[in-house]
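Exercise: predict the structure of this protein bound to iron/sulfur cluster.
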Amino acid sequence: MDEQRARIQEDLRGLIAGDVRCDDTFVQLYASDASIFQARPLGVVRPRTKDDVVVCVQYAAEHRLPLHARGAGSGLAGQAIGSGLVVDFSRYLRRIVRIDAETVRVQPGVVLEALNTELRSRRRMFGPDPATLAMTTVGGMIGVDSGGSHGLRYGSVRQHVKSLEIVTADGQRFEMAGEAVDFDHAGQRETNHAAQTHEATQTKRQLVRRVAALLARHAETIAAAQPRTLVNTAGYHLAGVLDDGRIDLAQLLTGSEGTLALITEATLATVPVVDRRGVVMLFFESLEQATHAVQKILPFRPSACDLMDRRHLSLARDADARYERLIPRAAEAMLLVEYAGDDPAEVRDTLRGIVDGVTRRRKLAFDARQAFEAEEVELLWELARHVIPTLYRLKGSARAVPCIEDIAVAPEVLPEFLIQLQNILKRHYVTASLFAHAGQGQLHVRPFLDLAVPADVEKINRLAQDVYHAVREVRGTISGEHGDGYSRTAFLEEQYGPLFPVFREVKRIFDPHNILNPGKIIGDGVGLPTEHIRPAAPGSPGRAGSAERGLEDKAAVSRPLIDLQLNWGRDGLVQAARNCNGCGACRSQAAETRMCPIFHVRPAEEASPRAKANLMRAVVTGELDADAMLGDDFKAVADLCVNCHMCRIECPASVDIPRLMLEAKGAYVATNGLRSTEWLAAHIDRLSRLASLVSPLSNWLIAHRAARWLAEKTLGVAQGRKLPRAAAHPFLRRARRQRLTRRVRRAEPKIAYFVDTYANYHDPELAEALVAVMQHNGVAVYVPSAQQSSGMPLVAAGAIAAARRLAAYNVSLLADAVRQGYHIVASEPSAAMCLTHEYPLLLGDEDDDARLVAEHSSEACGYLWSLHRRGRLKLNFQPLSAALFYHTPCHVKALGSDEPGENLLRLIPALRVHKTESGCSGMAGTFGLMRKNYRTSLRAGRALISCLREPGIQAGTTTCSACKIQMEQGTQKPTVHPLKLLALAYGLMPELARRLSAHSEELVVT
Ligand SMILES: Cc1cc2nc3c(=O)[nH]c(=O)nc-3n(C[C@H](O)[C@H](O)[C@H](O)COP(=O)(O)OP(=O)(O)OC[C@H]3O[C@@H](n4cnc5c(N)ncnc54)[C@H](O)[C@@H]3O)c2cc1C
Ligand code: SF4
Ligand code: SF4
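Solution:
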């Protein structure tokens, strides 16, 4: 950290209650957003209170430091980044202040999804719906004036803003809403009388009067320069702000991208939830037919009318079997049309009218699918929301780049404009994807470019110039809903001509010293978009603002980045890091998403998977010194990844964050070693073995508070955590006695059981249940006696060398078994993850044995379910009268298994299996054991525990031992592995039946 940063950090920490961070690693997290740009800030401020915001602005004004407001950083134009101090409103200022009958008062960091969840219980919602609703903040939406697919019905945010509380560039805070203008004093300086009034009131009066005078003076220019479109977020919104003697500066501030003031609270209008919605997918043989159809559909007054091209459709088909069934292969384009109303008959009739008009009468669409049930309607909307980010899953290094992605024209000129656009793209030798809010004439066009290639980067400016010229020719706008930022600021002067100097004047009135988000909207000297491009790979264009850097900096391309700990080569690492497009989907806290469990409970940028990708990309491109990886700041971010793999599964671009973090943690551990408490967590198997050796003592100790207190102080194990008892006779010893460790002399089916720590030392009964169930189904069981634990805790800690040794040992043992016809089965999902995913990663692609083992390994329930699907599972179950809550562990999801544990339980007569998505258990292997993570772990598991506490539920059930520990922590109800329940229902383990009945009176075999 340089001197200036150190001073700012020290000063501001003394002044505000929120966070202030200026270290290299932390500021890198805020150097990018969902755009293709990058600007490294001086520091990051996360205000806790409105007073923090005021003080921060006053400090910045005094020291002439630029300030860049930021919400979720999901903007596509680079408007939330800059070289000054980033003010992150999303961390603490996220409270819904008040909900009234038709309005809501919120802080700017409130996430739209969270707001709507609150409002929905009152049958209200916020109208505009950007696709990023699961993470976008209200402040960011106001900053951009966001819209969405339902723009035809709800317009953009501006239509819903009632008033804004703002902090001005000189640090005054007040409310802005519509008010009458006193023209007699417009444009004049304040009088003595005014000087006596409160300073904030004075500033406000001045602003109102000066802006009113400006708008009145330029009324004609303002009217003449407006694009003829239904949507527009380019430049400042001046039209209609002054109307009939009244002025509404909240309207002007909406969409001003943090360049005029910072918003600290907002009053927004809400709308009633619409009861009846019907959606139709219309399929076309060409894009042209689809755009012509839009003209025929609009008179029906649909609430949404979106268009997707062939590329989006085939991605959707690949991503989800349900879409594969719905979308015909022949479709070149699709319109997704929604009609909403109160009367179901009217909704059905209107949609039928649309389908009839476009298919039979006009012969434009060749096929249609309609949906009226809420669940089906939602499925179709998911398509629109999730498909754009999945463009990043396409193979190759060219990406669908947001650079001219927000143009809009009048809907009636759409067909002709589209032809012109395609011609321009052809002239530049680029192909592009197209998603459009076609009903509003809004086109999200993303050319496929490789930002690591200078020639492709250079195309960005030229493409923008040509496309924007064509847009202006039809009186369109260069930005319909994403705003200007670094992407479009340079083109605003051409878009608005004589109105642009008025924009400059507006900026001067609000922010005379150009402190607020300089370079956005008013960008004198800001340069063309490519000056801010984010480097995609070592030596690629970007950094220091030069598109040519890539050409000059050849040395960077071959320079080793870091000593890689994993065998994936430099290119593998670079590719994984650049796969993240910054979309921010991993900042979601929505109940139906698992990623990221840590972000769910600690919604801070550093906890998001995106943060991890950003840091690794910065290291590989040289933006961040590779030594930073060995520092504590980097480690603190890496430690917020618990290797659950949920982001890898749910990220629309499939970015392998856990692998990136394994590399990062590995680098740290290779140099610094493990800290003592981390060593313990990573070697928990040794502790379990010891506990089992002296089980009477260890079980006595874990039951005693004083001993647990001591364990917390010395070992870092949380005192409050209920620890599992140790078994006096580990399973592997019992297996030897039962001769299970002898190879089986018979043909398949036969399995080799990979036991792992928990079943071996803490729950041998689980291992016995597995053996009993397998044998009952005619599957011979062999337990390799020399096997060691899976080593997943070593992987999670980044102890790569030790994990690799263990992996090599287990793989050589198990590969031998596979070659003899055994299938490897693990009762612990994380052990199955090791066999199928982590071991090949640790040992490298060239390790044939690792691949062999990975290909022939399964989690136990998955194996049994596959038996059932082949008709080979015995179904002679006795009824089990009980109501259980089933929890799916993250690693089962990561294995890609289709809920086999739950499916098996549903085969047992009379057993009632309840399941709702209640997120991660929060235990995350050994993470939740440790004192420093205990509270976070409990918070993450709260939803799950409250499901278990439901009075009708008698017990929990899950396949993961760590989840079981958490589930039993929060309730007195037992959590039983599905294998035990199967054994129970087969009547194989009477002693287990007795024990469980003692636990839960109603859990009985009938
Ligand atoms: C995959 C994808 C799909 C998208 N789809 C849509 C869409 O359908 N419709 C749409 O409109 N947008 C869309 N966007 C763009 C983006 O998600 C929206 O513009 C979003 O509303 C931005 O909100 P945010 O919280 O991320 O704000 P940020 O990006 O963090 O900030 C946006 C702007 O608001 C300003 N700002 C933030 N907080 C404040 C504050 N308190 N005071 C003053 N200014 C502030 C910032 O300075 C910045 O200029 C999409 C983006 C992606 C990645
Ligand atoms: S990790 Fe995935 S979800 Fe998160 S920002 Fe990157 S691409 Fe988006
Ligand atoms: S692996 Fe899990 S904990 Fe790590 S970043 Fe991804 S979702 Fe978060």
